[in-house]
Amino acid sequence: MSSTMETLEEALPAAAPPVTPVSDVPVLVIERRSGLRLIDFRELYAYRDLFQFLTWRMIKVRYAQSAIGIGWAIIQPLFTTLVFTVVFGRFAKVDSEGQPYLLFSFAAMVPWTYFANSLTEGTNSLVQSADMISKVYFPRVILPLSAVAAKLLDFAIAFLLLLGLMLWQGVLPNLGVLLLPVLVLLMMATAAGLGMWLTALAIQYRDVKHAMTFLVQLLMYAAPVVYATSAVPDRWELPGGLVINPQWLYALNPMVGVIEGFRSALLGTRPMPWEFLAIGTVSAAVIFVSGALYFRAKERLFADVA
Q1: What is the model's pTM?
Q2: Based on CB atoms within 10 Å of each CB, which residue in 37, 54, 256, 257 is the most buried?
Q3: Dihedral angle at the C-alpha atoms of 78, 80, 82, 83, nearest 10 degrees?
Q4: Is 96 exposed, middle or buried (0-12, 13-18, 19+ CB in 10 A)?
């Protein structure tokens, strides 16, 4: 009898494992947060691997199947500077504040090229990743921020070339170089803030993408790239006897303080422009905070309009 029971037990299929009730399965629900919030840095830290991957992908895409490769990081600012040197340095005789115009212009082109390229890439970041943002959740702000981070490689290469040109011309930096990390952070914050503004607009209004070339050129001439800030008058007398300093209004563009700070630290063209840096820091903070708020406010629409 016992052997018969054992045979039957072996013939019968094994019992299925107990089924966990649906109510006991953990479920992750992603909900829209109420109110306006700035960047969630804890969430960014949790997705740090994705941030690193996207940053590296942007670097590889830029130089993939390129004959010159990373040399483009040198060619773009250097050739533009050479043209400016001929047109504005030789023909127009623009004041270079006692330094060779080549160094004067290139010291501005290094931070400006980084800012312009970061702004362009950041603006296009959501549009170029439309398929990804419509299929999987991740902090969307990673896209414009990774564009800003990826351009630091180009900036570093161009900066090394600038140091080489300075040694060739016999120009040595001063103690102002200790402030360069602050200037770089100010430059990055401005690019990130405007990038968040424009990329949130570009994914909904594709005209923004087509207007970027014109906008970047316009912004370049609104910054002291080919001329010195001293060319801007420091006194305007308005009707009614009101006197204002146009340079302070000019310094609302944070890149004014960044460029003049680079020239001061590396070339010694003028004392460190603390007033421009103070105004530019406040302006950059406003741009960054407002850009983050606008980005978060429009974030829920990205997957629908992508």
Answers
A1: 0.86
A2: 257
A3: 170
A4: buried
